Amino acid sequence: MTPDSNRVVEFEELRPLLFSIAYRLLGSVSEAEDAVQETWLRYESSPTQPESVRAYLSATVSRIAIDVLRSARVRREAYVGPWFPEPLLADPYEDPQRSAELADSLSMAALLLLERLSPLERAVFVLREVFGFGFPEVASTVGRSEAACRQLAVRARRHMDAGRPRFEADRAQREALAVRFLDAFRDGDLAALTELLAADVQLVGDAGGKAPNWGEVFAGSANVARVLAALMPLFARIGARVDPHEVNGQPGAVFRDRDARVLSTWAFDVLEGRIQTIRTITNPDKLAHLAPVADAWAALREAGQG
């Protein structure tokens, strides 16, 4: 095997890890994939072989993501309406020893908390707390001393702990509740929907000004249930289907039109047997990596609401 082919094999073995790091830093599937590709180009053109390929590639993708994040934050300040991360249906990286950290850090709620950190705090937290890198590696990656990185980690951990979302511990219970909820939604059963929603539930939508939005935020079980019950007939008129699917490690669904094009994703936060938050994404730019995307405006006109 040639040196170049060795590099290809090594890189492909680490690709899932690199993507998972970049996605948690950027909250964007497309930007994470771009960061991974740029990492490969730098590795491929490097004249020397690093002592630790894993450390070198992880540091490289993190630095690239930090640079992208700094410019992305400016764009997100001008974003129309609530901003959510691009939905991720499956994390390609698995580590049994860190499964809890990986799962917790993938949820929409956790990624939105990460958005409040500075780029350096975010990088230190993700590398140290989520992926378990040592402080020497973290310091080398972000270009700060180990002492400074420890301080960054403490600040980031304090902030994340203060706002850390709580979820139903039992995955099977979460999934079962989501199935019941989606069945009630399909049936337009207002009473069943209300029963499955927390009293202070929130329904929040990210359309980015590029798709129909039935309001950015609805709150309260009665209000949210009425909105949901009113939506189902619209979906039925366009032959839409609801596919239950894990979204960012939490129960959710992918909505498709009759031609299997994606209309939206929904992600649920579940606690104490009730749905606490529903986050919907209809911005087509954030759905394009999943499958062909439906024209939501055309679907709305077909449903007689445009």
UniProtKB/TrEMBL annotation:
PANTHER family: ECF RNA POLYMERASE SIGMA FACTOR SIGJ, SIGMA 19 FACTOR. Pfam families: Sigma70_r2, Sigma70_r4_2. It comes from the Bacteria. Residues 109-160 form the RNA polymerase sigma factor 70 region 4 type domain. Belongs to the sigma-70 factor family. ECF subfamily. Residues 11-73 form the RNA polymerase sigma-70 region domain. One of its GO terms (biological process) is DNA-templated transcription initiation. Keywords: Sigma factor, Transcription, Transcription regulation. Interacts transiently with the RNA polymerase catalytic core formed by RpoA, RpoB, RpoC and RpoZ (2 alpha, 1 beta, 1 beta' and 1 omega subunit) to form the RNA polymerase holoenzyme that can initiate transcription. GO terms for molecular function: DNA binding; sigma factor activity. This is RNA polymerase sigma-70 factor. It comes from Amycolatopsis acidicola.
